[in-house]
Amino acid sequence: MVNCDLFVSLHQIIGMLEVKDAKIAVGGQTLAVGLSFMARDGQLTCITGPEGSGKTTLLRTLMGFLPIGSGYVSVDGELLTVKSSQAFRRMMAYLPQQIQQLRHQLMPVEAPVCEAETYGVWNSLLPKAVVTEMPAPLSPEEIFLLVEQTLSDAKGKQIIIADEPAAHLTPELTLRLLQQLRDQADAGKTVLIASRRPLLVEHADLVIEMNQNT
User: Fold this and answer.
1) How far apart are CA 153 and CA 173, in angstroms?
2) Which of 14, 148, 173, 196 could cross-link 91 (Cys pair, CB 3.0–4.6 Å)?
3) How far apart are CA 80 and CA 20, in angstroms?
4) Residue 44: which of 214, 146, 197 has the closest Cα?
5) What is the 3-state secondary structure (H, E, C) of 106-152?
């Protein structure tokens, strides 16, 4: 059960993510050692590196789905752990690499889906590496619409986390995505993305090279 007092206090302070001397590992494989950086409010931070370098694993660790091997992750000085992460995640908007997990947001529903159910979709799927049968792929325009709607619905979220958000977008839509992310940062939010797209990397305020920390 989430501590309500913790939820209220986090809602008031949540913002900058700090990673200090972190060891990032999954499945017995160490992906980063001694990793340190600050993803600050009002800035666009980009985690980049070759495929398999640990970008998605790092995002999952920062959201508390995977334990940190050593070091720590904090949000404005409050320690983020697997046990405390549920309260922090309620302050985050997340765009998963498999964005079709959120495709229900494009479909009309008779009644609004509560926040717990919406986040349950990616909370339950995120830590697992299972192969599931997926529906027909979304078009680039549908993907961008889904990104746009998710960000629009994130007005009350202080941290935006996106995993390869431009992977299936055209160059024109990637530019529009960049502006959307920049608008979120300009609104004072912490925006943290994982991407290998040069346009997003070049326009980030801070770039974290995962392959330099292994």
Assistant:
1) 19
2) 14
3) 12
4) 197
5) HCCCCCCCCHHHHHHHHHHHCCCCCCCCCCCCCCHHHHHHHHHHHHH
